[in-house]
Every structure is written in structure tokens, then in C-alpha cells.
Design a protein that fits this description.
By secondary structure, the chain is of the alpha/beta class. The chain has 2 domains: 17-257, Aspartate Aminotransferase, domain 2 (3-Layer(aba) Sandwich); 260-360, Alpha-Beta Complex (Aspartate Aminotransferase, domain 1). Helices cover 34% and strands 17% of the residues. It is built from 9 helices and 15 strands. It has helices spanning 16-24, 44-61, 76-87, 101-110, 227-232, 242-257, 260-281, 307-319, 344-360, and strands spanning 5-6, 67-73, 93-98, 115-121, 123-125, 128-130, 145-148, 151-152, 157-158, 170-173, 190-194, 204-210, 299-302, 322-323, 334-337. It has a 7-stranded mixed sheet, sandwiched between helices. The chain has a two-stranded parallel sheet with strand order 1-14. Strand 8 (151-152) and strand 9 form a beta hairpin. The protein is globular. The structure holds pyridoxal-5'-phosphate. Residues 10, 75-77, 102, 149, 153, 173, 175-176, 194, 197 line the site of pyridoxal-5'-phosphate.
Length: 361
């Protein structure tokens, strides 16, 4: 067992079993006598990874037949561009729900290509961040799509419900949310996620897209930014990040072996609630300012009374192997990212440390 627990928001902790397996087969993958890194992406050997990863994801998320699964180079930020480039029709109107740093960045990027209507924003009510109910949103019934971010990784704000957008396709940036709990894929037009938070290594993203949304992109769209080209070429138009793809597949396999999404969801909820309970019982020693209905299971964000005390908390935590707990540079404080690959033991040790630290100061 590794001695440290990595609470980083991303790139983030990977399952120890996955790292050990990658280590074991580094020099000789599957009897080929070469590393997976050295294998051609169009060869029959790499093809097994292409096919197995899609099958694994389809099984884990119960992805219906009328959805394509694309594996695309780069991160979620690439998708901030690809979504508008591929979904804007001639009228170029989209609705964005702004609940934090990432959804705002997505909206800002879409503005380069068309109209953006901010249909709802996070609000502060009695000192707590919350999202207005959908009845108060100003959704455009003729929008080309509605974009939202089910889990805001920086602020720790997570939807416990899925917006209902009728005929307008719903697009979700699930980078820090995917595979953390079951979702009904049918409710979405596009789901996208960078791999390096909850399912692998940086360099690759997954896009789950409903068939009818694969169409000609805006004229002038660079070839690698076209979902249509990507789909036609089965995600192999050019050389993909093969090693990231391989690690992603190992993580998906590991999830299947460990009970699948439902099992992880139960665990994720229990673990997050354990930390929120400690925060709430601390009488203001630890402070989380997200409404209980929107508290994130994946990124538990909290503050201590002063920056000095926060620093002391981070320093002492680090000394006992609880690492990378520092909050995002934009919001400060502490952020504990509890992705699927975080062992229970890490969360238990953090919980113990939080209680003990609060008693001492
Ligand atoms: C990390 C993150 C991103 C950015 O991902 P990159 O891989 O750096 O492009 C976008 N959206 C969300 C929700 C994230 O957590």
C-alpha cells in the first residue's frame, strides 16, 4: 500500500492496482514483447484496447445503442470549443448554466462562435451557494443546446438532479462527475469528460453523443474538432494518446471488477457525508458555504477561520501523508477530492485528522 493519499482535484489519484499493472507490463504488453506505448494505433493489438474501452464504458454507464462513444485527444477544454463548433445551427443560439469556474469558461469559449444566453446562475442565499430551481431559469425553447456542469470541481457545487430541456439537447461537462454515480444517458444529448479526474490519465477525453447530433460542424471548423470526422474514423483519424487510452481502459476494467458505478456511488455519498458532518459539527471551525442540496460528493471544499490556520492545517496534513489538499488558487481554503480511486482509508484518515486538528486549535 502506498503511504500517501493524494487528494488532488486533477490529475488525480489512480487505483494502485492499475498503476501496478501498468508497471508490470511496461516493457512487454500482452506478450507482444514491446511496450503498449510503442504499438501502432491501427494495429490489431491496440484495437483490442479501442474495443474493450468502449465496451467497458458502455456497460458501466448503460449507454444506449443510439449513442456514439468517441475518444478524443486533449481535455474538457477542447470540448468547450467542440460543442459549439458542432452543435450551433445557422441561428447559433445556446443556453449556458453558470454555476462556477468551469461552466463560465465553457460559456466564454462558446461566445467566440455564436450567441450565449446565460439561462441561470449560481446564487448566494443566506450565505450559502445554491442554484435556482429550473422554473426560474430563462431557457430559450429554440436554443441549439443547453450546457451545464453537473459538478463544479473548484467550488464543490454539484447537481443532485438533471435539468429537463425537452427537445433541446442537454450537454453536460461531466469531467469530475462521470462514473461517480449512475446517470440515465437518455437524458443527455452529449456527455463529455476529461479522463484525468475520475477515470484515468490526462491527454484523453470521452464524448458520448446521440447519433442525430453528429452533423456538419460550422464551416471552417478544424478537422480534428469535428465530431463527424471523429465518429467516421472511429476516433482514429490521427494518432490518439495511446498510453492515456490504455490507462483509461485499465481504470474502467478496475471499476467493473469492483462492483460498477452503483457500488462506487454508495461509497462516494457515504464518504462525502462523513466529511460534511464533521464540518457541520465543528461549530464554524470548518466552514462549507454550499447549500446542502448542492454539496459535491467528489470535491469537498471548506475554509478555516484564517489563512494562517488553513496553512497550518495543510502543512500538518501533508506531514502525515494527506497530500494536495490545497483549494483551487481562485478560492483558496481546503479541497478534498474524493474520486473513485481514493481508498476509504484515505478518507478515514482525513476525517480523523480534521476532528483531532479542530480539538487542538
Ligand atoms: C478539470 C476540469 C476541466 C478542464 O479540464 P482540462 O483537461 O484541463 O481541459 C473542465 N471542466 C471541469 C468540470 C473540470 O473539472
Amino acid at each position: 500500500m502506498r503511504k500517501n493519499f493524494n487528494f488532488s482535484a486533477g490529475p488525480a489519484v489512480l487505483p494502485e492496482e492499475v498503476l501496478l499493472q501498468a508497471q508490470k507490463e511496461m516493457l512487454d504488453w500482452n506478450g507482444t514483447g514491446v511496450s503498449i506505448m510503442e504499438l501502432g494505433h491501427r494495429g490489431s493489438e491496440f484495437k483490442t484496447i479501442v474495443e474493450e474501452s468502449e465496451a467497458n464504458l458502455r456497460e458501466l454507464m448503460n449507454i444506449p445503442k443510439n449513442y456514439r462513444v468517441l475518444f478524443i485527444s486533449g481535455g474538457a477544454t477542447h470540448q468547450f470549443s467542440m460543442v459549439p463548433l458542432n452543435l450551433y445551427s445557422a441561428k447559433k443560439e445556446a443556453d449556458y448554466i453558470e454555476t462556477g469556474v468551469w461552466s463560465k469558461k465553457a460559456a466564454a469559449e462558446a461566445k467566440h462562435f455564436g450567441e450565449v444566453n446565460v439561462a441561470a446562475e449560481v446564487i448566494k442565499e443566506n450565505g450559502l451557494f445554491t442554484v435556482p430551481p429550473q422554473s426560474k431559469w430563462s431557457l430559450n425553447p429554440n436554443a441549439d443546446y443547453v450546457h451545464y456542469t453537473p459538478n463544479e470541481t473548484v467550488e464543490g457545487i454539484e447537481f443532485q438532479w438533471v435539468p429537463q430541456t425537452g427537445k433541446v439537447p442537454l450537454v453536460a461537462d461531466m469531467t469530475s462527475f462521470i462514473l461517480s454515480r449512475p446517470v440515465d444517458v437518455n437524458q443527455f444529448g452529449i456527455i463529455y469528460a476529461g479522463a484525468q479526474k475520475n477515470m484515468g490519465q490526462a491527454g484523453i477525453s470521452v464524448v458520448i453523443i446521440r447519433d442525430d447530433l453528429i452533423k456538419d460542424p460550422i464551416p471552417g471548423t478544424p478537422i480534428l474538432y469535428s465530431y463527424q470526422i471523429t465518429a467516421e474514423h472511429h476516433s482514429l483519424y490521427n494518432t490518439p494518446p495511446t498510453y492515456s487510452w490504455y490507462i483509461l481502459n485499465l481504470v474502467l476494467r478496475w471499476m467493473k471488477q469492483n462492483g460498477g458505478v452503483k457500488k462506487f456511488a454508495e461509497r462516494n455519498e457515504r464518504r462525502a457525508m462523513k466529511l460534511y458532518q464533521i464540518i457541520d459539527k465543528s461549530k464554524g471551525f470548518y466552514l462549507n458555504t454550499v447549500h446542502p442540496d448542492y454539496r459535491s460528493w467528489m470535491n469537498v471544499v471548506f475554509n478555516l477561520e484564517t489563512p494562517e490556520l488553513t496553512q497550518l492545517f495543510l502543512d500538518e496534513a501533508k506531514k502525515i501523508g494527506l497530500k494536495y489538499l490545497k483549494g483551487h488558487r481562485l478560492v483558496g481554503g481546503v479541497r478534498a477530492s474524493l474520486y473513485n480511486a481514493m481508498p476509504d482509508e484515505g478518507v478515514n484518515q482525513l476525517a480523523e485528522f480534521m476532528e483531532e486538528f479542530a480539538k487542538r486549535y
